[in-house]
Amino acid sequence: MTEQLLDKNKAIVVFSGGQDSTTCLFWAKKHFDEVELVTFKYGQRHAQEIEVAQAIADEQQLKHHVLDMSLLSQLTPNALTDPNMAIEANDDDIPNTFVPARNLLFLSFAGALAYQLNAKNIITGVCETDFSGYPDCRDSFVKSMNVTLNLSMDKNFVIHTPLMWLDKKETWALSDDLGVLDYIRERTLTCYNGIIGDGCGTCPACKLRARGLNNYLVEKGANN
Ligand SMILES: [Zn+2]
């Protein structure tokens, strides 16, 4: 039996419609000929997260796969899926937005989809720098997952993490390099209160995003 080689020019992006994964979408478009998106539906607090992702996919004319992962919300209560729970972030602990095994499951399903599509490349916007409280967003986990995917399907997938070592300021800089800073600023949804673009301004996700953007714009202004 001759093994069918994965298409090295084809990529799928794990896509939520937020700043990070949208930056990854444009990074992928720059590096690969054929890009498709996969969004996981798991009982997010805000249904418009899926709508925002779909709208961006349509605007960019990319094929968009939405996979139902609602079983995640059955496993444990957490602030991302339970609308009655307040979002809390603190410095020492894992934030209560943590969904155990979320990224493990997402990357497994992304791998299964990549197998179906014969795509060699899987791109995820996880990063260690800002939300390092999530253990399955760390580089060591992603590398281990890459090995596991390859062993499980006898393929040579490559998981790319273009944001792994970037802080939010550097992620904005990357989107500016890619020529899409304004698009990402206006069209993506990061806010825990479901407000698109610059968001509510007060939740932890908005604060992090705004601080990074301000730092980047100040630095850019100083260099001009
Ligand atoms: Zn917000």
TrEMBL record:
Keyword ATP-binding part of the UniProt annotation: yes
Keywords assigned by UniProt, alphabetized: ATP-binding, Ligase, Metal-binding, Nucleotide-binding, Queuosine biosynthesis, Zinc
Classification lineage: Bacteria, Bacillati, Bacillota, Bacilli, Bacillales
Gene3D superfamilies: HUPs
Family label: Belongs to the QueC family.
Enzyme class: ligase
Residue positions binding Zn(2+): C191, C200, C203, C206
Name of this protein: 7-cyano-7-deazaguanine synthase
